[in-house]
Every structure is written in C-alpha cells, then in structure tokens.
Amino acid sequence: MRTDEASAIHEIEVKYHVSDGQALMTALEQRGITLSPPVRQDDQAYAPASWRYGMSKIGVPFARLRTEDGRHLFTLKRPVDNELACLEHETFVADREQMHSALLAMGFAPTVRIAKIRRTACWGEVSLCLDAVDGIGAFVELERLIGAEESGEEVQHRLDLLVRSLGVRMERTTETYDSLVRAAMLAASGC
To answer: 157 Cβ partners below 8 Å, 6+ apart?
Structure first.
C-alpha cells in the first residue's frame, strides 16, 4: 500500500435523489434522528486539466474548495472502488483565492460550481447529509469513514440497506454532485 493510501481517510458514500422530502423527514424523526440547522455551502470542483467528463474517475485526484459560514475547506478525493468510495485529504485554508490559484498552478482546472443547503445528523457511526442542491433537487447521502482494510463496496451495500430501512421511496445515484450538476446544465442548454 502506498503511504498516501495508509494516511488518507477512506470516505464511503451512498447517495439518493429524494422526491418526497416530508416522508424522509418523518422517517428520520421516527428513528430519533435530528438534523442540524441548514447551512449554505458554495463548492468549486476541480479536475486535472487533462481529464474530461466521460473518462474514468478511478485513481484520478479531484479537488474541491468549499466555503461555509466564511470558512474555506480544501478537499482532495481520489476514487478507489468507484466514484463514491474515495481516499480523502482535507484541511481548512485561510484564503480561497490563493488556494484556487495554487490548484491552477498544480495542473487542476475548475469544472462546475455546486451550491447547496445542507443539514446533517449522525445515525450511529454513519453521517447523514440532507442536501437541497441548486439546479438538481433534494438528495440524501450516507457517509462512513473506514480503514484501508475494509471494502468500500461492501460498506456501500450496508449503507444502502440502512437507507432502504427507512421505507421511503428514493432513487439511488452513483454520480457525484459535480457530474449531476454538469448534466443538468447541459440539458438546460440543449446540449
């Protein structure tokens, strides 16, 4: 195993488009899951300049600059098993514009901007995010951090069973928000 893999956080996610937000809220409340107050997140996604949508994301590093409540978070994710099972490195940065310039100098290019309202909760050892994403709608994500010895796909299977236990009709997606936002933008422009 490479050193960066051993020190990185393995973030495993499952994501679902939510058509009935009230049914989901009721199911969460019935399980004693209380969501945080809403916060606005402004994300700029980045990819290596040589990468294009339609190419594989496995093994490719992707970056994100997020601003929330005046704080800036830099994240680098590298998909391992699939797009939602990634090695992840994160840190706060003081100056978003300087970090943007540094990313460009390192060979990254901006892809899409993602704006959303997020509410979060803990469900045992799982993090739950309820997102209202500009241009694409409401989504629920379940995330779990794992060690390098665990299978991301197996954890995704267990997370899927957990979501389905809510009894709310939702449509699972294996796409990341940047891909979903980009597809919505292309559809709106007629491309």
So the answer is: none
Among 14, 22, 18, 2, CA closest to 133: 18
User: Around 50, how many Cα atoms within 13 Å sit in the side-chain half-sphere?
Assistant: 4
Domains in the chain: boundaries: 3-189
**Residue 177 backbone dihedrals phi, psi, to 5 degrees:** -60, -40
Indicate the residue type of 75: T
Residue of 71, 41, 46, 45 whose CA lies nearest to 131 = 41
Element (H, E) at 47: strand 39-48
Domain 3-189: give its CATH architecture: Beta Barrel (2.40)
Average pLDDT of the residues in 115-123: 97
Query: pTM for this one?
Result: 0.88
32 SS3 class: coil
DSSP state of 55: B
Q: What is the pLDDT of residues 147-173, one digit of tens each?
A: 777 778 888 999 999 999 999 999 999
Average pLDDT taken over every residue of the chain: 92
